[in-house]
C-alpha cells in the first residue's frame, strides 16, 4: 500500500494554505450567522494577521462603554487551531472545540460557509461535518479520453459493460476503464455502467457541448466543491491552487472501499484531472482562475454565483419532524404533533395527499408552512400554489398544450416538474388549492396513471412518460422529488371523489377547531427554516417485498388487522385491494423505522384516511358494517342512543372509532352517510 509521509516543512506549508483559504473566505463574507441561535456576526475587517468580528452584543457593550472596541479580533492561528480540532473529529459540536471554546459558535458558523462542510442536527444539537467522498467519484482519466469513449459508445454502439472483454491489451483496457469511470461521473452511465439514454440524447442534440458538459460537471458534488473553492482562490498561483485543493482532497476523500483517506499522490493526480477538465470546457482559464463566461447566451457561470452554497443540513427523520412541528407552532395555528407526523409519513409513503376539511381550518397554511420549514418557498420555486378552476375538463391547464402554431405551451405544473428535474436533491411541493372544484378524474387522471407506473430501473425509481417528446419537445417524466397536495372542501359547489382517486391518495381530514387553545402562542422561540435533502422525503418502497425484508413481523401484524377489517368491508363491496394494503404497510414501516408514533396510533391514521373514505350509502348493510367496524376499533358494542358519549381512551383506534360514530349518527338522522359529511 502506498503511503505518503509529509515533512515538517510540508505540514507548515499546508497550514499556510488553509490560512489562505480562511482569509479568502473571510474576505468574501460580510455576515454569517451562528447555527443554533441564527444571530448575525459581521466581519468588518480582514488583514494578514486575522479578522475583526462584531455582533449585536459587542456593539451594545461598546455603546454603553463596557467594551473598548465594538469588535473581537480573531487570529488565523486561533482559527487554524480550531481547524485542527474540527478535522480530528470530522463531525463537531461546540463541545469539540476545546482549545477554542470561547468562540466555538462563531467558528462553527464560519467553517459552515466552506463548501465542503455541511450541518447536521442530532438530539437538538448542531454539528458541522466534513462531506465525504470516495476516489471513484473523482476523474482518473483526461476529458479527451473520456469523450473519445463516449463517441465510441454513440457511433460504434459500444456497450460500456463489455470493455474488459472487448479490449485485451492491458494498457488500452486501463485507459478505457478510467474513461468509463469519467462517463459515470458526468452522468452518462449509471452505477452499473448502464447508458443513461435521456442524458446521452440531450448531449447529442445540444448545440454547444461545452455548455452541456459544464452543467454536468457542476451537478457533481465534488467537482462543484472544487469549482466553488477556485472561486475563492482567484489570483493566486497555479501551484498554490493545486496544493490547497490536494490538501482538501486528502481530508475529504477516502479510497474506493471507504476505509483510508486518499494519499497525497493520488489526491494531486485527481485534482489536476479536475482542473484540466474545467480548463478544456472553459470554466477556468490557463491559470485555473474561474471565468465569468456566458455560453451562447443561455447559461451563465460567475464567481459570485458559484459562492452561493446549498444550505442543506443532515438531520434524522425524527429530528426533522420535530423541527417541522416547532416551525409550524410559531405560525399562529394549532396542530397536534401527530398531525404533522401524519402529513410527513403520508407524503413519504406516496407523493400525493388530499387534505379535506371545513373552510378556515388551515388546510392551505399547514402545507405552506410544512414546505417553508424545510426551505421550500414560492420565491425559490420549491413551493407552488395552483388554484384549480371549475372549468378544467382535461390536463391542458395543468400540464400544457400545443397551440395553433404547433408550439408547446407549458402548464404551471410542467414548469415545476422541469425545475424539480434540474434539482433532484431538493424536495418540490405543489399545492392544488380546492382541487375538487373540477372533476379530479378529468384533469388529473394522466398524473394518477403515471404515478402508479413507477418502477425500479437500475436502482432508481422511474415513471412512465408524462409528456412525450412529440408533444412537449422533449420527453418529460414525473420526478421523484415532486410532492402534490390537494386541498378540498366538500359542499354543494364541489365534486365527490371516485374510488380510483381515493385508492391513490392518503386523505387527511382537518375539521378540528380549538379556538380556546392559546397556549401555543406563549413564549415561542423563533424557528428558522432548515434546507434539507430530498432523500429524507423519498420513498424507498414500491412493492411489498421491498418493505417485507426488514419489517417481516410488522407486516404480518398489519395484515392480520386488515384481514379483519376487509372481511367487514366486503359486506358493501368496499373492501381494499393490494395497493391500499401495500401503502398502509409502507406508512407503518417508515413510522417504525423512525419511532414517530406508537403502532396503534399510526394504524389508526391509516384506517381513517385509506379505508373509511370508501364507505358511503343509505341501506341497512352500511349501518351493519359501521357497527361492526365500531366493535373492531373499540372492542365495545355500539349503543343506539344519540346522546351517548363514548370514552375512547382505551380503544385501539380512537380516531377511526370517532369517525364511525359520526357516520352512524348521520345515517340515523339523514338516512344517508359518507366519510365526507361532517
Automatic annotation (TrEMBL):
InterPro entries the UniProt entry points to: ATPase_dyneun-rel_AAA (IPR011704), Methyl-DNA_Rec/Restrict_Enz (IPR052934), P-loop_NTPase (IPR027417)
Molecular function as annotated in GO: ATP binding; ATP hydrolysis activity
Chain ranges passing through the membrane: none
Superkingdom, taxonomy of origin: Bacteria
Domain annotation ATPase dynein-related AAA: ranges: 353-504
Full protein name: ATPase dynein-related AAA domain-containing protein
Amino acid at each position: 500500500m502506498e503511503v505518503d509521509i509529509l515533512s515538517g516543512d510540508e505540514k507548515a506549508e499546508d497550514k499556510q494554505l488553509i490560512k489562505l483559504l480562511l482569509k479568502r473566505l473571510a474576505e468574501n463574507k460580510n455576515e454569517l450567522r451562528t447555527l443554533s441561535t441564527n444571530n448575525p456576526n459581521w466581519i468588518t475587517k480582514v488583514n494578514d494577521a486575522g479578522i475583526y468580528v462584531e455582533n449585536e452584543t459587542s456593539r451594545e457593550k461598546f455603546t454603553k462603554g463596557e467594551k473598548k472596541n465594538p469588535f473581537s479580533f480573531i487570529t488565523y492561528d486561533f482559527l487554524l487551531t480550531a481547524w485542527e480540532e474540527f478535522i480530528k473529529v470530522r463531525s463537531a459540536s461546540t463541545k469539540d472545540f476545546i482549545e477554542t471554546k470561547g468562540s466555538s459558535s462563531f467558528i462553527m458558523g464560519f467553517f459552515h460557509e466552506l463548501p465542503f462542510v455541511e450541518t447536521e442536527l442530532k438530539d437538538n444539537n448542531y454539528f458541522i461535518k466534513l462531506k465525504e467522498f470516495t476516489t471513484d467519484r473523482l476523474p482518473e482519466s483526461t476529458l479527451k479520453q473520456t469523450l473519445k469513449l463516449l463517441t465510441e459508445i454513440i457511433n460504434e454502439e459500444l456497450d460500456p459493460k463489455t470493455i474488459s472483454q472487448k479490449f485485451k491489451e492491458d494498457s488500452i483496457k486501463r485507459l478505457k476503464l478510467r474513461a468509463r469511470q469519467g462517463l459515470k461521473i458526468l452522468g452518462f452511465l449509471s452505477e452499473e455502467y448502464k447508458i443513461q439514454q435521456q442524458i446521452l440524447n440531450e448531449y447529442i442534440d445540444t448545440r454547444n457541448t461545452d455548455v452541456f458538459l459544464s452543467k454536468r460537471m457542476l451537478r457533481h458534488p465534488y467537482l462543484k466543491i472544487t469549482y466553488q473553492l477556485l472561486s475563492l482562490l482567484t489570483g493566486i498561483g497555479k501551484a498554490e491552487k493545486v496544493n490547497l485543493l490536494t490538501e482538501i482532497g486528502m481530508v475529504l476523500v477516502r479510497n474506493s472501499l471507504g476505509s483510508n483517506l486518499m494519499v497525497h499522490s493520488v489526491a494531486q493526480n485527481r485534482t489536476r484531472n479536475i482542473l484540466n477538465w474545467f480548463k478544456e470546457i472553459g470554466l477556468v482559464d490557463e491559470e485555473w482562475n474561474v471565468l465569468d463566461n456566458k455560453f451562447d447566451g443561455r447559461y451563465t457561470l460567475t464567481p459570485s454565483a458559484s459562492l452561493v452554497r446549498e444550505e442543506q443540513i443532515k438531520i434524522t427523520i425524527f429530528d426533522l419532524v420535530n423541527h417541522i412541528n416547532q416551525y409550524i407552532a410559531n405560525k399562529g395555528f394549532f396542530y397536534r404533533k401527530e398531525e404533522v407526523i401524519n402529513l410527513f409519513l403520508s407524503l413519504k409513503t406516496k407523493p400525493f395527499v388530499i387534505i379535506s376539511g371545513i373552510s378556515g381550518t388551515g388546510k392551505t397554511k399547514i402545507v405552506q408552512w410544512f414546505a417553508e420549514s424545510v426551505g421550500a418557498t414560492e420565491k425559490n420555486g420549491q413551493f407552488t400554489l395552483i388554484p384549480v378552476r371549475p372549468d378544467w375538463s382535461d390536463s391542458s391547464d395543468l400540464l400544457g398544450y400545443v397551440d395553433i402554431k404547433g408550439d408547446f405551451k407549458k402548464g404551471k405544473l410542467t414548469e415545476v416538474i422541469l425545475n424539480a428535474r434540474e434539482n433532484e436533491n431538493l424536495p418540490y411541493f405543489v399545492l392544488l388549492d380546492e382541487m375538487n372544484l373540477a372533476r379530479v378524474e378529468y384533469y388529473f387522471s394522466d398524473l394518477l396513471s403515471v404515478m402508479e407506473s413507477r418502477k425500479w430501473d437500475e436502482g432508481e425509481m422511474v415513471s412512465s412518460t408524462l409528456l412525450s417528446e412529440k408533444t412537449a419537445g422533449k420527453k418529460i417524466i414525473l420526478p421523484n422529488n415532486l410532492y402534490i397536495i390537494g386541498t378540498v372542501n366538500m359542499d354543494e359547489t364541489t365534486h365527490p371523489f371516485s374510488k380510483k382517486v381515493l385508492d391513490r391518495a392518503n386523505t387527511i381530514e382537518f375539521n378540528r377547531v380549538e379556538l380556546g387553545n392559546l397556549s401555543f402562542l406563549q413564549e415561542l422561540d423563533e424557528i428558522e427554516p432548515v434546507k434539507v435533502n430530498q432523500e429524507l422525503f423519498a420513498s424507498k418502497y414500491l412493492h411489498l417485498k421491498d418493505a417485507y425484508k426488514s419489517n417481516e413481523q410488522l407486516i404480518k401484524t398489519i395484515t392480520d388487522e386488515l384481514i379483519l377489517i376487509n372481511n367487514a368491508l366486503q359486506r358493501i363491496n368496499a373492501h381494499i385491494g393490494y395497493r391500499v394494503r401495500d401503502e398502509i404497510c409502507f406508512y407503518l414501516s417508515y413510522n417504525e423505522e423512525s419511532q414517530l408514533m406508537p403502532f396503534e396510533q399510526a394504524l389508526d391514521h391509516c384506517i381513517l384516511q385509506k379505508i373509511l373514505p370508501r364507505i358511503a350509502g343509505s341501506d341497512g348493510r352500511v349501518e351493519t358494517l359501521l357497527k361492526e367496524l365500531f366493535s373492531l376499533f373499540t372492542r365495545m358494542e355500539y349503543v343506539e342512543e344519540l346522546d351517548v358519549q363514548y370514552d375512547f381512551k382505551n380503544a385501539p383506534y380512537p380516531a377511526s372509532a370517532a369517525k364511525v360514530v359520526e357516520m352512524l349518527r348521520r345515517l340515523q338522522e339523514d338516512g344517508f352517510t359518507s366519510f365526507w359529511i361532517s
